[in-house]
Amino acid sequence: MATFQMTLDDDFKADVDELFEDLGLDTETAVKMFFKASLARNGIPFSVKHYKMPEDLQEAIRDARMKKNLYGPFDTAEEAVASMLKDD
Q1: How many Å apart are CA 34 and CA 55, to the nearest integer?
Q2: Residue 58 and residue 66: Cα distance in Å, rounded?
Q3: pLDDT value, residue 43
Q4: Are residues 61 and 70 in contact, defined by beta-carbon separation less than 8 angstroms?
Q5: Which of 16, 20, 44, 85 has the most crowded CB, counting CB atoms within 10 A?
Q6: 33, pLDDT greater than 90
Q7: CA angle centred on 50, ends 41 and 46, rounded to 5°
Q8: Which residues, 6+ apart, have CB-to-CB distance to 71 below 8 Å?
Q9: Contact of 27 with 16, CB cutoff 8 Å
Q10: How far does Cα 45 stand from its chain's mean position?
């Protein structure tokens, strides 16, 4: 049995631990899943490419994090979509 170690920023590690816990996994299991999927696909198990997030999406994420320009809550998905589509 071999040991695999890596160094991560504390905040980054906490974020990935939380994400995987929400998915019902621990980080070690998630990493093993990545390695197994890599072997099964004989490469990285997802597309590796540059991704530039559109500015309007970046702005929406910033707004959500700052809790501004938010609307709702909505009782149905239809109400939420209607709110997004209406002109202000």
Answers
A1: 30
A2: 12
A3: 96
A4: no
A5: 20
A6: yes
A7: 15
A8: 83
A9: yes
A10: 16
